[in-house]
TrEMBL record:
This is 5-formyltetrahydrofolate cyclo-ligase. InterPro entries: FTHF_cligase, FTHF_cligase-like_sf, NagB/RpiA_transferase-like. Belongs to the 5-formyltetrahydrofolate cyclo-ligase family. GO terms for biological process: folic acid-containing compound biosynthetic process; tetrahydrofolate interconversion. Substrate binds at I50, E55.
Length: 187
């Protein structure tokens, strides 16, 4: 299927999950992450869930990162430039909801993308080759290009992969892993 069709299908699939089930499965996803060979890295990038998009709740994963005393970065969306700007997440970081409903830092200590070792990636759908579909603006694909070639890109999804996304372009950068409530897919 193509990206447009899959976006529609997966937005509906996520919306059909109850809040309680999304929360339980988000906890399962966080627990699955503990089996990945990533916990010796230095800097982890995480997104804050967009509530009205029924995304995986990353608070559980964030608690694991804090519990392991990891350095954590998160992003602010710069819509005028079609890019993300990254900041260190600290106890003093103020998180605000922007005009698009995205929780993001209100300033802080800037972080260069080349310093990031692991990126937890939001997505709507993905396929068995690790190709992902986001919301269609390319923010994360541009972000990946700013990072080191060995940065680990880990998707978070309530659902298993599709067989194929038919209209992948050369600008689409695949994931290394995707964590679901039941298992982890490696690409």
């Amino acid at each position: 299927m193509n990206k447009h069709t899959l976006r529609k299908i997966y937005k509906e699939k996520r919306a059909s999950l109850s809040e309680a089930l999304r929360d339980l499965q988000s906890l399962d996803i966080a627990n699955q992450s503990l089996t990945l060979p990533i916990w010796n890295k230095r800097l982890y990038h995480i997104f804050f869930s967009i509530e009205n998009q029924n995304e995986v709740n990353t608070q559980y994963l964030l608690n694991i990162l804090f519990g392991k005393d990891k350095n954590i970065a998160t992003s602010k969306t710069i819509f005028e430039e079609n890019r993300l700007k990254h900041f260190l997440l600290t106890d003093q970081t103020l998180i605000k909801i922007n005009s698009q409903g995205i929780p993001e830092p209100d300033g802080g200590i800037p972080i260069e993308p080349q310093l990031i070792d692991v990126i937890f990636v939001p997505l709507l759908a993905y396929d068995i080759q690790g190709n992902r579909i986001g919301y269609g603006k390319g923010f994360y694909d541009r972000f990946f290009l700013e990072c080191r070639f060995d940065v680990l890109k880990i998707g978070l999804s309530f659902f298993p992969p599709e067989k194929e996304i038919s209209d992948i372009s050369q600008n689409d950068i695949p994931l290394d892993y995707c964590i679901t409530p039941q298992t982890i897919f490696k690409f």
